[in-house]
Amino acid sequence: MSRVWSRCEARFVHLDTFVRAAHIGIMNTPSTKPSPDASQIHRLKRPPTAILTLLLLIAGVEMLLSLAETFGYGSLRIFCFAKLAFNSAYLTGTPPLYEAQPWVMFFSHALLHIGSVHMLGNLLTLYLLWYLMPWMYISDFVVVFWVGALGGALGFLWLAPPGSLMTGASGAVAGLAAVWGLYEMFLVQKGHILSIRPKWTAVLMGLVTLGLLLRLDQQLGMAWQTHLGGALAGAGFGAGLIMRAIQEG
């Protein structure tokens, strides 16, 4: 048993070294090739296509709806909410507007927000979470996003009053935040605390954003049920990702 544990610790040390290297832009492997500049090594300065597409999709939907309201077509937001927002009434007896709606809304709600402030808060937090987790595969980040969205919808379904309406990527954000928090807790437990200034700057910005959203709680109608469900789903899925990362070394 002690041999297995020592082996896991050795792999974890290697993972910790990789994480540090990813943040500071230095890999401790000898190479005869010329060293690329920091912007090329630090993949977090510019999100890859999959992450950028996700961010632009969320921003684009809100920009379209906001522009429509500006030019007197506010009914477009109402139409999209009716078709794509999560509405627990469609799972408790109310006939859906189209056949696939009871299934589609478990994911489509993450692309809708009630306003630009709501959208910007989630968008900024998503980017910061991507910045804070350089060890995470791009595909895993996207998967956890949608797992968190699903978990958030389930949490809202089970804990919110019947017939409630919910939109926003909060569940997805909470799921990714849970993965990051779980990883940081593991680092603290093993004594591998990352003292990286950009990381804590990002955390501070995230806390400021959270404080702003909490101040606007009445206007935004923030659903704690969604955050809780997304966080639990993200933590469960993220635990497997972290263990896989450690095993891969």
**CATH first level: which class?**
Mainly Alpha
Might you state the CATH topology name? Rhomboid-like fold
In quaternary terms, these chains amount to single chain
- Which strand order does the major sheet show? 1-2
Mind explaining what this structure looks like?
The protein is an all-alpha fold and 249 residues long. Helices cover 70% and strands 2% of the residues. Helix 6 runs parallel beside helix 8, helix 7 (138-159) packs across helix 8 (170-190) and helix 7 (138-159) packs antiparallel against helix 11 (224-248).
Defining key terms:
Rhomboid-like fold; two-stranded antiparallel ribbon
In short:
This protein is 70% helix and 2% strand.
Mind sketching the topology for me?
Blueprint (H helix, E strand, L loop, with lengths): L1 H23 L13 H4 L7 H22 L4 H10 L1 E2 L13 H8 L7 H17 L5 H22 L5 E2 L3 H21 L6 H19 L1 H4 L3 H25 L1
Helix pairs in contact: 1-11, 3-6, 6-8, 6-9, 7-8, 7-11, 8-11
